[in-house]
Amino acid sequence: MISNPLIFVATSDIAGKTRGKSFPVADLDKRLKRGVGWTPTNVQITCFDAIAESPFGALGDLLLIPDAEAAVSVDFEDGGPPERFVLGDITDLDGEPWSCCTRSILKAALERLRRVGGVELVAAFEHEFQFLPTAPTPGQGYAFGAFARRRAFGEALMAALEQGGLKPDTFMKEYGPDQYEITNDPSRGHVAADHAVMLRELTRQTALRMGETATFAPILDPASVGNGVHIHMSFVRADGTPATHDPAHPAGMSPLTGSFIAGILKYLDSIVALTAPSDISYLRLTPHRWSAAFNNLGFRDREASVRICPVTSTAPDSVARQYNFEYRAADAAASPHLALAAIVHAGAQGIEETLAIPSVTEEDLSLLSPSELEKRGYVRLPKSLPEALDRFAGNPTVTGWFPEGFAKVYCAHKRGELAWLEGKDTAERCAAYAKTY
Ligand code: GLU
Ligand code: MG
């Protein structure tokens, strides 16, 4: 068949969807300057394709400008055309970042961290996903047989990620039915979020090319475990030296790390609407699911919202480089850029407020009474998306981190998503999210 190869320029939008337009690859140089036209109201297209209330209506024009550094080209060698896409930034016609461009929002948050903390963020997104329809075969948790059944998929995915410019780390069978986990190496700044988008799309495409469907929906069945996104973070100074670890602290946190984590914990209940942004995200954020239910810090504890991760070395230099913590209250309904922006702003706020290094939780918080929790300074995370949106919209410090007008657009978008789900029971809601993510 004749062919003029196309490349798709994309934004990772408020719905956590990768949306954009394509043009001939041959025009890439021209498009790197000129971009493609984009419509403001597109930001209100929910994950179910309903259009939420939009302040922009039919008006306005924007540009989606590809970033040559964020281009992916993968030849699956399966007889089909190579997959080509490139991430970009949305600007107004004068070239100024648009208020709802998630990538620009993340870049601004990282700039704030640079300013207040003097450090660069290094991050990696750890993803869980499931194949549809799931086959709940007993005995498959972490099992060789279940891995071997998906070996061909895992090997194709590893190759696709590598061609896409990511460094794949591990592929494993997770605990849940037909649930797998894929990790890749950390990167600096916004590139970590770019890589998360690429990883999600390449995982879905690898599955589709093999006649399968992979979903990153936050949870498929409330009786089982969810699909988490754990965001690993550490810091380096401008000269590249690590700045996360301090051997003098019992849990290893440098004062900067401690204030950053304290900021996350302080603002967690108000940012979770951005990091776990679907209706069913709140079925996952419940105790004893190894996700996150309280604003607590754990030392290697998988029930904590923020967890200090293990290091595999004892040599001081390697410990300093490997030492990292992860944010566990995220899922793949969130744009990686927006989720990371919210976390970085909360951390930067913690640094600005010179918050003290938080203490590590050593008990099961779900066993404490509400008054006991309050006495110890813990907050139960919102139990539903409407509650999470109220906490976000009601916290002027948090909404103030984002461009003018963004919080209102975001809440209207999410309320539109909720309206579409009205009348559907839990199973129907999970099924709808399974299809869209
Ligand atoms: N599936 C769990 C989640 O929803 C995470 C399990 C793990 O610790 O890897 O976050
Ligand atoms: Mg896992």
Task: Looking at this protein, list some descriptive labels.
Creatine Kinase, Chain A, domain 2, globular, single chain, binds glutamic acid, alpha+beta, 36% helix, 9-stranded mixed beta sheet, 2 domains, 14 helices, Ubiquitin-like (UB roll), 437 residues, 5-stranded mixed beta sheet, binds magnesium ion
Write up this protein.
- This protein folds into two domains: 6-99, Glutamine synthetase, N-terminal domain (Ubiquitin-like (UB roll), Roll); 105-436, Creatine Kinase, Chain A, domain 2 (2-Layer Sandwich), CATH 3.30.590.
- Helix 4 (151-163) packs across helix 5 (190-209) and helix 6 crosses helix 11.
- The protein has 437 residues and is α+β, with helices and mostly antiparallel strands.
- Helices cover 36% and strands 21% of the residues.
- Strand 7 (168-173) and strand 8 (179-184) form a beta hairpin.
- It is built from 14 helices and 14 strands.
- The radius of gyration is 21 Å and the shape is globular.
- The structure holds glutamic acid (GLU) and magnesium ion.
- Magnesium ion binds at residues 128, 174, 181.
Provide a quick synopsis of the model:
The protein is 36% helix and 21% strand.
CATH topology of the largest domain: Creatine Kinase, Chain A, domain 2
Overall, the morphology is: globular
N-to-C span: 32 Å
**Compute the gyration radius: what is it?**
21 Å
Classified by CATH, the class of the largest domain is Alpha Beta
Structural class: alpha+beta
DSSP helical segment count? 14
Oligomeric status: single chain
Largest sheet: 9 strands, mixed
Full CATH superfamily name of the largest domain: Glutamine synthetase/guanido kinase, catalytic domain
Taken in chain order, the helices and strands follow as: EEHEEEHEHHEEEHEEHHEEHEHHHHHH
So, CATH architecture of the largest domain? 2-Layer Sandwich
| Unreliable stretches | none
Mean pLDDT: 96
